[in-house]
Amino acid sequence: MTATLMPKPIYGEAGNGMHVHMLLRKNGQPVFYDPDGYGQLSRTAMHFIGGLLTHARSLCAITNPSTIPTSASSPASRLLSPSAMPWRTAAPSCASRPMLNRRTRTLRAPQPRDAMCNPRTFAYAAILMAGLDGIEREIDPAGRGWGPFDFNLFDLPADERKRLGHLPASLDEALDALEADHDYLTRDGVFPMPLLETLVKTLRADAQEISRIPHPAEFDRYFDL
Fold it and tell me: Which position has the higher pLDDT, 190 or 10?
């Protein structure tokens, strides 16, 4: 047996994942909990989710920084992977499946993550900044048509799923999103712009190098034609 952090090491099988739980307190009390809210989530939690969904595509460049996980989240290879942008409390088709731990009052951050990311330095901070942006701007995911949807979105017609939006299908697409949407990260100097520029440059070089390497499956299909 071999341990690996690769998010999708075996084709056609469920991959590895990394869930993040976040807890925000105000005056010592958890702010994500509301016993009368949907899934016992408060309005603050909803706004946090709204921020994450607003910035989900650019977040993928930080939380899913290899060439593998974003393709695993694409509709073409969606086995237990979130591909659609909307949210609900439990659905493999949704980018956001926030769940409140009733004991600790922590919110499982609704964003696909890759164990190959840099969690403590980059990923946690980026997720938090996106959520806080949603709280400050009071972004309502329901008001933007992002759910909650209490059914499997794979059952929707293709044109309706397209309207809802999807996560990046490649690392380059995620990097494009980050270049277009990063102001929430640079606020108060949390992510200096030179750092993001270096990150984009490094990851694009990785993606370009991988794209030039023949894949073993290509040999199987084309080598002896």
Answer: 190
